[in-house]
Amino acid sequence: MSEQSKHTALYTQHEAHGASFTDFGGWQMPLKYRSELEEHHTVRKAAGLFDLSHMGEVLVSGPQAAEFLNYALVSNLAVLAVGKAKYSLICNEAGGVIDDLITYRLTGDSFLVVPNASNAPVVAEELRLRAKGFDVAVEDQSDTTALVAVQGPTAEAVLLDLARPEDAAAIRDLKYYAVVELELAGLPVLLARTGYTGEDGFEIFLGGNVAVRLWNAALEAGGKHGLLPCGLAARDSLRLEAGMPLYGHELGLDTTPFEAGLGPVVSTKKPDDFVGRSVLEPLKAVEPARRLVGLRAVGRRSARAGYDVVVDGAAVGTVTSGLPSPTLGYPVALAYVDAAYAAVGTEVQVDLRGRPEPFTVIPTPFYKRRPAGSPQ
C-alpha cells in the first residue's frame, strides 16, 4: 500500500466492511469486500453500491462556458440541453485521447465535467490552460466532492426508499444520461442516471463531508433490495462485459477516437474550432489502420491485456482487456487488431504465453441487459 495514496471520504466505511484495497489512480480503493464474482452477480441481479469518489469533478461556468467546452472537447456541448449529459473526449493537438469523460449541463452557463481518477488533475489543468481567452471559470471540485453509484436492476427502488415523496417522480422519470438536483437521505445531491456497468443505475454527487451518511443510509435502505457494497474488481468485469473502454487500456495518447470506435463523439459539424480538429477531421473519412474489436474464446482460457493477437503466426494486434465473463460463462476480450481482421466472424488466435488459442471476433457490447418485464 503506497504511503502516497489518497483516501476517499468513505475509506473507513470500506475498512469496516472488510474490504481488500488496491491502488488505483493514486487512491486506495476497495478491490472487493467478499467474492468478486458474488459482487458482479449482485449488480446483474439486484444492486451494487460503489464508491467512485476517486473520480474528478471540474465545474466550468461563465457566459462562454458552452463555447469554451466546444473548443476544449471534441463533441458539441453547446447543443446539450440543461439537465442532460454527454459522453465525450478531450484530445491533444495530435488527436490522441487525454481522457474520456462525461459532461453534465447544470444550467445555461454551468457544466460539470467528470474525468477519470488517474487523469483528473491532468484534465483540470488542461481545461485551465485552454480557458485562456474565454470568459469562464474552471474550478476543480474533486477534493470536496464525493461520488457514489447505485447500479443494478433494483437501483431505482433503492433510491426511491432514500428519497422524499415529492422527489419520487423525478427519480422515476429521469432518463438515461440526464441529471437532476434533489434530496436523498435528507441530503442535497446531484443525481445522474449514468453508469459503467451495463445495468440501469445512478451516480450521486454530494459533499464529501456528508458522504458517510448517504453510504450508510443506502446500505440500510438497500438491504431489502439485495444491495451490497461492491469494489473495483466487479466494476472492471461489469464494464468489460458492457464493452466500455478503460483509459490506459482501450484509450490513451497513442489512440485516436476512430480506432477506438468513438468516431461519432467527434463533432466536425460544429462551427467551432477545437483542439485536435486539424488532425481528427481528415481521419473521420478514412478507415483506421487498426480497430478495437470484441473477442470470444473458443476454449476456456482467457486472454489478458498485453497478449498478442496472431494470424498464421504473425502478430496482427494486441489485447487491451480480457477475462472470463461471469455473466456469459466464457472468456471475452477487447483488442486492437489490424483492420483486415476486424470483421465480425474473423477467426484469430491469442498468444497465451507461448500457446496460441483460438478466438473469434464478435460484436460488442458482449452483454446487454434485458428490458424490464422481458422473459428471463
Automatic annotation (TrEMBL):
Binding locations of substrate: E203
Stretches assigned to the GCVT N-terminal domain: 10-270
Reaction(s) the record says it catalyses: N(6)-[(R)-S(8)-aminomethyldihydrolipoyl]-L-lysyl-[protein] + (6S)-5,6,7,8-tetrahydrofolate = N(6)-[(R)-dihydrolipoyl]-L-lysyl-[protein] + (6R)-5,10-methylene-5,6,7,8-tetrahydrofolate + NH4(+)
Keyword Transferase annotated: yes
Database matches in SUPFAM superfamilies: Aminomethyltransferase beta-barrel domain, Folate-binding domain
Keyword Glycoprotein: no
Residue intervals of the Aminomethyltransferase C-terminal domain: 290-368
GO term, biological process aspect, one: glycine decarboxylation via glycine cleavage system
Domain of life: Bacteria
Cellular-component GO terms for this entry: cytosol; glycine cleavage complex
Enzyme class, spelled out: transferase
Enzyme Commission code: 2.1.2.10
Keyword entries, A-Z: Aminotransferase, Transferase
A GO term, aspect molecular function: aminomethyltransferase activity
Known partners and oligomeric status: The glycine cleavage system is composed of four proteins: P, T, L and H.
Record family assignment: Belongs to the GcvT family.
Role this protein plays: The glycine cleavage system catalyzes the degradation of glycine.
NCBIfam families: gcvT, PRK00389.1
Protein name: Aminomethyltransferase
The species this protein was found in: Arthrobacter agilis
